[in-house]
Amino acid sequence: MASEDELLDLVRMRNYRQVAIELIALEAGRDVFDIEALREDPEGALGGNDEITVEYDMSPRDGCSVFGYYRHVPAGQSMIFVHPSLTSERDRFTILHELGHHVQRQHLGWANVRHSLPSEIGAQLEERVADAFAAEVLIPASTVPADATWLSARTLAEVYTTVRASRAAVAMRAIEIAPEGEQATVIVTDHRGMVTFARASGDEVFAPARGRIQPGIAKMIESAFERGGSAIGPLDRGLEARSGWAQQDLQVEVALDDTWGYAFVVVRSAQRFGRKPTWDRIDDAECGNEACGTVFTVNEAVTICPACEVPKCPECGRCACEPKTSPVCDRCWLELTPAEQADPALHECP
Ligand SMILES: [Zn+2]
Ligand SMILES: [Zn+2]
Ligand SMILES: [Zn+2]
Ligand SMILES: [Zn+2]
Q1: Rounded CA separation 233/333 (Å)
Q2: Closest of 189, 185, 209, 222 to residue 307, by C-alpha
Q3: What is the per-residue DSSP string for 62-122?
Q4: Are strands 78-82 and 52-56 parallel, antiparallel or unpaired?
Q5: What is the pLDDT of residues 70-114, one digit of tens each?
Q6: Residue 160 Cα, ligand 4 centroid: separation in angstroms?
Q7: Residues near 65 by Cβ (< 8 Å), separated by ≥ 6?
Q8: Interval 265-289: pLDDT, tens
């Protein structure tokens, strides 16, 4: 079992998934919840449990997420409240997220780590770990054999039929579990090719905005309809960004889900054919950083930010995202001043 120091290291590395795996292992030893049964039917699995009860709450939404909240009752039965959503998948995730709050209170080592942090950071951390716990229970890494990749549209469509989680949760898991350095973007679209979820692994292929129809993906979805549910090939017309550029030289794999109403899509660069992705509207851009203002040509040497879809300035590295905040002290989590960054001895924890 991980020590408190090891848990703190996981927090520093933002490896919430590994924290969740540790908590699930501890839960197995405690033997209060049946993780397998939770995977199948969270609400049913918690029925008759002495530690916790699930209630549906029809009142206006408050609590830690818009979907539900957790109320700890010391020396009594704690409560999970769920604001029912339109999908049972959403409700299952909510129940397990709230159970994730409960589980985090049951393990002294983790509780010590979480409460050693300033309250706002600790609260944020608890939310992240609650999400990771829910995802880990609903979609265990073992759903896909260890020697196969999650970054495959057909694999994701198969996973979706076997787990009780939303398409977005399945796509998100693919990004979390894929080894670092594997470059691909995972997208969920409806049958028209309208993006409902997109997340990039690596920065080779950007993640297109939600709510926009991608014509190239729409075309490949039509092929999938004709070919029994999946299709693969070059991405015609590229992947279109809000900024008006389209990333080219991409390969797309599409697999319809079991309803044929939605598709899992994996886009990667076609570099296996010896090409690097390019952008088809070679244009000048001006850096938005008022301290920089460099005018540069957008070509294959420039990275497009996967989050804001704006080319990153080659001079200062800025896109349209908020710049990263300063590094923080390992012990007190306060931001370090530039002087303290240069000479850590200058920093004194409060
Ligand atoms: Zn929460
Ligand atoms: Zn710049
Ligand atoms: Zn950005
Ligand atoms: Zn400090």
Answers
A1: 48
A2: 209
A3: -SSBTTEEEE--TTS-EEEEE---S-HHHHHHHHHHHHHHHHHHS-HHHHHHHHTS-HHHH
A4: parallel
A5: 999 988 899 998 887 767 777 888 899 999 999 999 999 999 999
A6: 44
A7: 94, 97, 127
A8: 999 998 755 566 666 654 567 777 7
Whole-complex ipTM: 0.40
Q: What is the Å distance from ligand 3's center to 306 Cα?
A: 6
Task: Note the ligand closest to the C-alpha atom of 307.
Answer: 3
Q: What is the distance between the alpha carbons of residues 14 and 11, in angstroms, rounded to a whole number? A: 5
- Picking from 82, 80, 91, the residue whose alpha carbon sits closest to that of residue 169 is 91
Q: List domains and CATH numbers for the chain.
A: 4-138 (1.10.10.2910), 141-273 (3.30.450.20), 325-350 (no CATH)
Categorise residue 108: left if φ over 0, alpha if ψ from -120 to 50, beta otherwise.
alpha
Looking at all shown ligands, the one closest to residue 118's CA atom is: 4
In this structure, which ligand is nearest to the CA of 242?
A: 3
Instruction: Say how far apart CA 52 and CA 192 lie, in whole Å.
Output: 43
Q: Residues of 47-59 as b/e, b for ≥16 C-beta within 10 angstroms? A: eeeeebebeebee
Q: What are phi and psi of 341, to 5 degrees?
A: -65, -40
